[in-house]
Amino acid sequence: MERAADFLEDAEDSLGAARDLFGTGRWAKVCFHCHQAAELGLKAALNALGLERRGHDLSYLLEELAGYVREFDELRDVAKVLDQYYIPTRYANAFYRGSAMRHYTREQAERALEYAEEILRRVRQVVAQGKVEEGS
After folding, report:
1. Measured on CA atoms in the order 95, 99, 105, 108, is the torsion positive or negative?
2. Burial bucket for residue 30 (CB in 10 Å: 0-12, 13-18, 19+)
3. Which of 46, 57, 106, 107 could form a disulfide with 51 if both were Cys (CB 3.0 to 4.6 A apart)?
4. What is the C-alpha end-to-end distance of the chain, expressed in Å?
5. How far apart are CA 12 and CA 6, in angstroms?
6. What's the gap between Cα 38 and its chain centre?
7. What are the C-alpha distances in Å from 54 to residues 21, 101, 129?
């Protein structure tokens, strides 16, 4: 079932939440929502290509997508950075001491926003185009 538009709408909502949270200085939550935006965006693109994927590993989702749209291969390092924001941004026990929020910075949040925005910019193009031939 084609759900690309639904995934993309939720991705945009997560990116909007990240932007809102940036204004309040909640760096860890910005990073988490950027991961979510990227995850939902990549799933939207894959869905537009007729594929349904589960899971939260951006590196895996991006690698699969790059098999269909080579330009996504350029974002491998971006995915690896954002993958680090899925669990530890939410759980204090990811660190030896202190709440999760105390371990993230404005600079990390800014970079996460840039990365999520870049992924979504490319995802929008795939979703708008729909299906493409493998390896194109």
Report:
1. positive
2. buried
3. 46
4. 23
5. 10
6. 1
7. 26, 27, 22
* CATH architecture entry for 4-129: Up-down Bundle (1.20)
The predicted-structure confidence for 21-71, as pLDDT tens digits, reads as follows 999 999 999 999 999 999 999 999 999 999 999 999 999 999 999 999 999
This prediction's pTM? 0.93
Task: Write down the pLDDT at residue 2.
Answer: 86
Amino acid at site 88 = P
Cα-Cα-Cα-Cα torsion 30, 28, 105, 71, nearest 10 degrees, comes to: -50
**If we measure between CA atoms, which residue out of 118, 95, 117, 76 comes closest to residue 28?**
95
Residue type at 27?
Answer: W
- Helix H, strand E, coil C: the string for the chain is CCCHHHHHHHHHHHHHHHHHHHCCCCHHHHHHHHHHHHHHHHHHHHHHCCCCCCCCCHHHHHHHHHCCCHHHHHHHHHHHHHHCCCCCCCCHHHCCCCCHHHHCCHHHHHHHHHHHHHHHHHHHHHHHHCCCCCCC
